[in-house]
Amino acid sequence: MSGHMSCHFPRLVRRGPAIAALAAAIIILPAWNAAARGPENIADVAEQVIDAVVNISTSQKVDPRMSGLPELPPGSPMEEFFEEFFKNHRGHGDADRMPHRINSLGSGFIIDASGVVVTNNHVIADADEINVILNDGTKLPAELIGKDSKSDLALLRVHPDKPLKAVKFGNSDKLRLGEWVIAIGNPFSLGGTVTAGIVSARNRDINSGPYDNYIQTDAAINRGNSGGPLFNLNGEVVGVNTAIISPSGGSIGIGFAVPSNSAVAVIDQLRQYGETRRGWLGVRIQQVTDDIAESLGIKPPRGALVAGVDDRGPAKPAGIEPGDVVVKFDGHDIKDMHDLPRVVADTPVGKQVEVVVIRKGKEETHSVKIGRLEDGEKMAAAEAGKNAAPEQKSVVQKTLGLELSSLSDDLRKKFKVRDNIKGVLVTGVDPSVASAAPDKRLSPGDVIVEVQYQSVGNPADLQTRLDALKAEGKKVAVLLVSNADGETRFVALSLQ
Fold it and tell me: 226 catalytic, yes or no?
C-alpha cells in the first residue's frame, strides 16, 4: 500500500487546481470502505450469540462388503477422502473391506438452555452416534428428538451440567432484500466461524423439496456450515443454513437458509410429538401455464391446477375435482402452484377451511376438513408398495401428431393400463412432433380421459370434440391424461 501511495502522490501534487477535489476523494474513500465491510455491530452480535452455536460431530459404521462408497451427509469433510480411499484401495485385500467407522462434522444452535439443539437432518442422517461440541470445547452426547427430511431439519437433546446459552428465533417474514445477516458455523472443521452478507432473495425454490421457500444470502456458507444459524443484526435466528450452489464445494456467494418462520413450525412439532404432523388436502397439482390459463379463461395465470384427487383424501368428499384451479386456501391467496403445498402443510390437522377454486370460469367455495399428510403417505405406500409411479410433469403439446386407439384388452395388457382407466389410448407419437419438445411430449401408453372437461371413449369422440373446439375459435384444448397407473395430469394442446 505504501509503495502504491508514494508512486501516485507526486503526480497529484503537480495537478494544481484539481488537488482539492482529489484530496477530498482520498478522505472519503476509507469511510466508504468501512461501510462496505458492514455495520459496526456485527462484532457485538457475534460475541453475543457465539456460545449458542455448536459443532455437531457424528459417527457412522459402514461395511464396505455390503456396499460401495458410503453415503455421507452432504458437506461432510470426509467425502473427498473416502472417494479417493475407495478408488485406490478397492479390491486390495480383505483388510480394506473390513467394517469401519466414518466421522463427519456440521453445525447447530441451542434454542433452549436445558439443552435442545437444532441442526439439519442431513448432518445427522444415518448416524449411529451424535455428539454436540460447545464453543468452549465441551463435548456432550446427544440423542435425537425427531427429524424431518422434507424441511431438512432435526432436533437434538443434550444433558449439560449447567444451563447453556440459547438464542431466539426472529420473524423471517420481516427480512428485506439487502438486509445484513450473519452466518455462524463450523466450515471445513475449523471451529466457530463468523461470516456476514446480505439477503439476496427470498422464497427461493431450489427443487430440493415440496416446501422450498429458502432465504438466499451471499454470506459465505461452506461445507460444515450446514445446520448453523443465520442471524439478523438483533441477534435473532432468521434462518437455518442448509445448502449452497458451488462447483467447488466452497462459497461463491449463493447460500440458502430455511426461513425461521418455516423452521419454527416444524421444530415445535418435533419437540411436541417427535415427528411432523402436516396438513393434507389430498390432491395432485401442476402449474397453470399460459396455455392452460387461456383455455380456462383465467387472467392473469394464477393458482394451482388440480390434476388429480386422492380417493382417500379430504378433497374428494369436499367436492374438489380435477380441472379445478385453487386460487385461495383458508384466506391465503395461491399465486402459483408452489404456494399451495406450503400453506396446506402449515394448516393444523382437523381444521375446517374454505378453499376457493375456479371451475369452468366461475369461482366456487368448498369447505374441507384437513387431514394429516403422514397418514396419506402411509396409505399410498401400503397400496403402491415399491412400484411407485414416476412423477408426471406439466405438458404442453404444440400439434396433435398422435396415433390413437380405443382401449382393448390386448392393448391394456401391452401397455399395462389398469382396468378402471377409461379413454383413448396413445399408441404412437409423430417423431417430428416429439423432437420439437422432447421433454414435454405425450408417450405411448398414456390415456386421454377428457378433452376440455368432456369424457372421450374412442378416437372418433376425441376428433369430434377437437373439431367442435376449433369451430368455436379455440386455440388450445385442455386434455386430461392418465398414465398406466391412473395418475392424471393436464396437457394443453395447440389446435393451430
Answer: yes
Put residue 85 in one of left, alpha, beta given phi > 0 → left and psi -120 to 50 → alpha: alpha
Whole-angstrom distance, CA of residue 376 vs CA of residue 373: 5
C-alpha cell at 338: 408452489
Q: What is the pTM of this model?
A: 0.64
Q: Is 122 a catalytic residue?
A: yes
| Region of poorest pLDDT, from 170-174, 263-267, 425-429 | 425-429
The C-alpha angle with vertex 36 and arms to 35 and 38, in degrees rounded to 5, equals 70
- pLDDT digit string (tens) for 142-166? 999 999 988 899 999 999 999 999 9
Q: Are 312 and 379 in contact (CB under 8 A)?
A: yes
172-273 and 279-384 in the same fold: no
User: How large a percentage of the chain has pLDDT more than 70?
Assistant: 75
Do the Cβ atoms of 49 and 167 come closer than 8 Å?
yes
Of residues 104, 151, 152, 200, which has the active-site annotation?
152
Specify the pairing of strand 395-397 against strand 488-494.
parallel
User: For the chain, what are the domain ranges?
Assistant: 53-157, 172-273, 279-384, 395-494
- Of 76, 104, 122, 260, which is the active-site residue? 122
For the domain covering 279-384, report its CATH number.
2.30.42.10
Q: Which option is the CATH number for 172-273: 2.40.10.10, 2.70.180.20, 2.30.42.10, 1.20.1740.10?
A: 2.40.10.10
- Name the nearest CA neighbour of 54 among 223, 244, 229: 229
Which fold does the domain 395-494 belong to in CATH? Pdz3 Domain (2.30.42)
Q: What one-character DSSP code corresponds to residue 187?
A: G
**Taking Cα atoms as reference points, which of 454, 446, 437 lies closest to residue 494?**
437
Exposed/middle/buried for residue 485 (C-beta within 10 Å: 0-12, 13-18, 19+): middle
Task: Give the C-alpha separation, 41 to 373, whole Å.
Answer: 43
CA distance 153 to 144: 11
324 is catalytic: no
Annotated catalytic residue: which of 151, 226, 260, 482?
226
- CATH number belonging to domain 53-157: 2.40.10.10
